[in-house]
């Protein structure tokens, strides 16, 4: 019985000790790396994307040797260690905005991912491109065992793995020419553009659009123009209408333009926005150049006011209006001025009655001008002040209407008498 117990004990000790003494040695093998883009690999010119690349190690250990006296090794020959991967741009119309990525160790049968920020050139031609992925790593080349110790020999390898991307044809617009007309502060005007398709896509059902740029005082009022089929290399002329706010200054302001269209896949897409700078002229403005405004209480007088166009644009069918306040009244408070170019003057005449008990002092009457701008929109000027002085009535008999009437009759009668007398004496 004791002999059987000793045999069982010996077998247990052997079972526990033998695996620790034996070791597997992989004599042949190396990493084998391949790369592919995770997700879509189709992009359009001008895109800025995050490119995710999956790096897979499919390397195998092809020969295994079991040696009961060997020391187990820490690394396998097919493990890619300290992997670094960076995207290149040689022969590819992209810009890589990320540094090479450190991926660590990739054992056989495992994968790792790297992400890169990439911008596709706006003028990139459509097609399939092979983006070079440069990968550097080390791996176990060989090992030597000395008694119960092992010396490792590592090799470093750099290889370039192509990664395929597809650049789709796209519409790219170039604003060949831009002009503006009647673009002044507080008015509407036209913006005319010549657009060219400098891309590689034939756009269908294309529509050119202008869009307000942020808080720019240039606001589109007629913002789209139908282009239809817009082929590569083709140019089109388009006209838009915009309004300029009254808070604008005499300077250039931004305006955005883009084209929406159906691409070759039947999807409705839009081009990248192009920002233009448009000069804005000064506002339309008027001033009271002069006035013959010395009136007398208790009389009806003609008030003559000279208005001058001090703005930067021509106005059409201008009419001046004066607001009569106490002690003034008027049944004829509007006068036609006509068309006024910048710097032009025109005289308005208003019939004004003054109360007989009016105080003798200077008065300010409000006046404004209603006019049509170049796009036939009705506009009203800022309010202007017309100064009117009330002066005492003259006591001269020649200011009395009755006396003036008698004098007129006497002069006419005398003239008639002289004429008849000369005829009789011939």
TrEMBL record:
The keyword Translocase does not apply. The keyword Membrane applies. The chain crosses the membrane at residues 402-421. Keywords: Membrane, Transmembrane, Transmembrane helix. Residues 168-263 form the CARDB domain. Pfam families: CARDB (PF07705). PANTHER family: NPCBM-ASSOCIATED, NEW3 DOMAIN OF ALPHA-GALACTOSIDASE, S-LAYER DOMAIN-LIKE PROTEIN-RELATED. This is DUF11 domain-containing protein.
């Amino acid at each position: 019985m004791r002999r059987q117990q000793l045999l069982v004990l010996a077998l247990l000790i052997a079972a526990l000790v033998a695996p620790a003494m034996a070791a597997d040695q992989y004599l042949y093998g190396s990493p084998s790396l391949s790369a592919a883009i995770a997700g879509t690999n189709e992009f359009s010119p001008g895109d800025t994307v995050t490119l995710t690349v999956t790096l897979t190690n499919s390397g195998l250990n092809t020969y295994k040797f079991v040696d009961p006296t060997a020391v187990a090794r820490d690394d396998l020959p097919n493990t890619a260690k300290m992997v670094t991967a960076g995207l290149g741009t040689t022969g590819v119309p992209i810009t890589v905005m990320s540094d090479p990525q450190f991926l660590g160790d990739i054992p056989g049968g495992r994968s790792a991912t790297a992400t890169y920020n990439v911008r596709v050139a706006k003028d990139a031609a459509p097609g399939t491109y092979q983006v070079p992925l440069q990968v550097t790593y080390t791996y176990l080349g060989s090992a030597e065992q000395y008694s119960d110790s092992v010396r490792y020999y590592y090799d470093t390898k750099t290889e370039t793995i192509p990664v395929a991307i597809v650049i789709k044809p796209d519409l790219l617009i170039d604003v060949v020419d831009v002009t503006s007309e009647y673009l002044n502060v507080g008015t509407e005007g036209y913006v005319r553009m010549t657009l060219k398709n400098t891309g590689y896509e034939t756009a269908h059902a294309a529509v050119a659009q202008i869009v307000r740029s942020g808080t720019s005082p240039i606001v589109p009022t007629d913002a789209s123009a139908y282009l239809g089929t817009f082929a590569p290399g083709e140019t089109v002329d388009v006209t838009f209408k915009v309004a300029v706010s009254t808070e604008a200054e005499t300077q250039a302001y931004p305006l955005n333009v883009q084209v929406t269209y159906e691409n070759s896949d039947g999807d409705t897409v839009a081009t990248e926005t192009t920002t233009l700078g448009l000069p804005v002229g000064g506002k339309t403005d008027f001033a009271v150049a002069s006035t013959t405004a010395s009136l007398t209480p208790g009389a009806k007088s003609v008030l003559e006011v000279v208005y001058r166009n001090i703005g930067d644009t021509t106005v059409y069918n201008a009419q001046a209006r004066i607001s009569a306040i106490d002690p003034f009244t008027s049944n004829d408070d509007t006068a036609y001025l006509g068309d006024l170019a910048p710097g032009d003057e025109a005289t308005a005449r208003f019939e004004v009655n003054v109360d007989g008990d009016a105080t003798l002092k200077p008065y300010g009457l409000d006046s404004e001008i209603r006019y049509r701008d170049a796009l036939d929109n009705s506009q009203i000027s800022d309010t202007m002040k017309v100064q009117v002085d009330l002066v005492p009535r003259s006591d001269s008999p020649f200011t009395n209407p009755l006396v003036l009437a008698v004098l007129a009759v006497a002069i006419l009668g005398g003239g008639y008498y002289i004429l008849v007398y000369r005829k009789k004496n011939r």
